[in-house]
Amino acid sequence: MASAPREHWSSRTGFVLAAIGSAVGLGNMWRFSYLAAENGGAAFVVLYLTITLAVGIPVLLAELVIGRGSQQSPIRALAHFGGRAWKPLGGVFVAAGFLILSYYSVIAGWTVRYALIALGEGFGQDVAEHFSEVAVGWDAFGYHVAFMAITVFVVAGGIRGGIERTALVLMPTLFAIVVGLALYAATLQGAGPGYAYYLSVDLEKLLHWSVLKDAAGQAFFSLSLGMGAMLTFASYLKRDEHLPNSSLVIGFADVAVAFVAGLVVFPLIFALGLEERIVGSKLGTVGALFITLPQAFAEMGAIGRGVGSLFFVALVVGALTSAISLLEVVVSSAIDGLGWPRRRAALVAGGAITLLGAPSAWNTDVLGLVDQIANNFFLLGGGLGLALFVGWIMRDPIAEAAGGTEGIGWFPLWRWLLRLAVPAFLIFVLAYAVPETWEAARNLFADLLGRSA
User: Fold this and answer.
1) What pTM, to 2 d.p., does this model score?
2) What is the pLDDT of residue 283?
3) DSSP string for residues in 249-291
């Protein structure tokens, strides 16, 4: 039986907005600014931007090249250019999307819950106790299921009718909210120290291995690299798409949203005198987002309800557009590899991912470990495999990348970055990240065994 013709984006704008939506998510809206503040301020921003330009965008372009050239989902795309021996790397991408979405949806469910609270009765004073109640258990699982249901609905609608249509509405909305909140934060009395803290330069902190690992992990997670999302989206492109321009637009838009989000968060926190709950605290990124910021909104009174509503709505939008791309990796692979119709693939994949996320909905320690495994093994490892594949195995990636372009002379540099610099950097980061993840896993299992004894 002949397979149905492959869908394509109806416009370049639709593809770019969907790809930016994949990149822009919870990591941009909070994790980036938190890491910047904890790891050298503006110096971290420069390091992150450098890694994005020298490592992230070359790997992003490699994903786009493979996707557009093969017109296939990850497993078949790698086999198309490298033979059957490279199918497992495509399988790593699919597994990454499957695993990441399982816990990402739990956190996204928290954002939906908080957006509804902000829009309704507003935040109370004891936000920490409230978060401990809703972060795990049936509430967390219920919102996880609801968020996955929305994601499945969009992906089941197809590329044009579901994913592209959603991106064309949600991404401009997200940009408008973030810029509007940044402008509002600039009007707050006492915002100056927040800018100073966020944008301070502490070069000493950049000498720590953990800072380099955090910057690399943030760059890969934020750009949706190593999980096959960009490869899958590019497989729906027509042959004349200008891939270098698209990769640069996606990369810089991702960095810009993350940077501007920091201009919202820290002026707001410092203007309300809540900096001690962030600086040197042990809350971590998740606790600071779901405890300290809601406390800030509560102390702002009536206007805090509006600001909090916009902020958490923006988080929901970013989480949804990223989740859509993760689910599409799995769905596209099921369509290509198993011959399933899209709706069946979306329902089955979405249901399986929802079940896999149940442990994260019942235990935040499990969620944290899965996050570490996904970032430190799947994303960085997948990016390493992709760089080596395009740099050394793919027959003529430059010719494939050059389709639809004219007069670009840095393609040879791009390939040599993938051959040497990018793998060396990622191996270096992995050498630090793997032992850390292993230790976290040992501690979690020891704790779980201790509780059961």
Assistant:
1) 0.94
2) 46
3) HHHHHHHHHHHHHHHHHHHHHHHTT-GGGTTT-SSHHHHIIII
**Local structure of 49: helix, strand or coil:** helix
Phi-psi region of 26 (alpha: psi -120 to 50; beta: other; left: phi over 0): alpha
- Total number of domains constituting the chain: 1
Buried b (16+ CB within 10 A) or exposed e, 122-159: bbeeebbebbeebbbeeebbebbbebbebbbebbbbbb
Q: Please list the helix, strand and coil fractions of the chain in percent, rounded to the nearest 5, in that order.
A: 80, 0, 20
Indicate the residue type of 443.
Answer: N
pLDDT of residue 324 exceeding 90: yes
Is the Cβ–Cβ distance between 401 and 246 less than 8 Å? Answer: no
Query: Cβ(114)–Cβ(124) under 8 Å?
Result: no
- What's the CATH number where 112 sits? 1.10.4160
Which tokens in the block code for residue 208?
A: 């720590």
- What is the distance, to the nearest Å, from the Cα of residue 282 to the centroid of all Cα atoms in its chain? 23
> What single DSSP character describes residue 4?
P
The model's confidence at residue 390, banded by pLDDT at 50, 70 and 90, is very high
At a CB cut-off of 8 Å and minimum separation 6, what does 71 contact? 6, 235
Whether 6 maps to a domain, the answer reads: no
The 3-state DSSP class for residue 122 equals: coil
- 3-state class (DSSP) for residue 428: helix
- At 2 the pLDDT is 44
Q: Structure tokens of 289?
A: 């987002």
Confirm whether 3 is domain-assigned: no
**Phi, psi (rounded to 5 degrees) for 201:** -115, 115
pLDDT over 70, % of the chain: 94
**408-421 pLDDT tens trace:** 889 999 999 999 99
Give the domain extent around 181.
12-448
- Report whether pLDDT(113) > 80: yes
Domain assignment present for residue 229? The answer is yes
Contact 163, 12 (CB under 8 A): no
pLDDT tens profile 53-112: 999 999 999 999 999 999 999 999 999 999 999 999 999 999 999 999 999 999 999 999
Question: What residues pair up with 41 in beta bridges, in sequence order?
Answer: 201
Taking a C-beta distance cutoff of 8 angstroms, is the pair 11, 240 a contact?
Answer: no
Identity of the amino acid at 372: Q
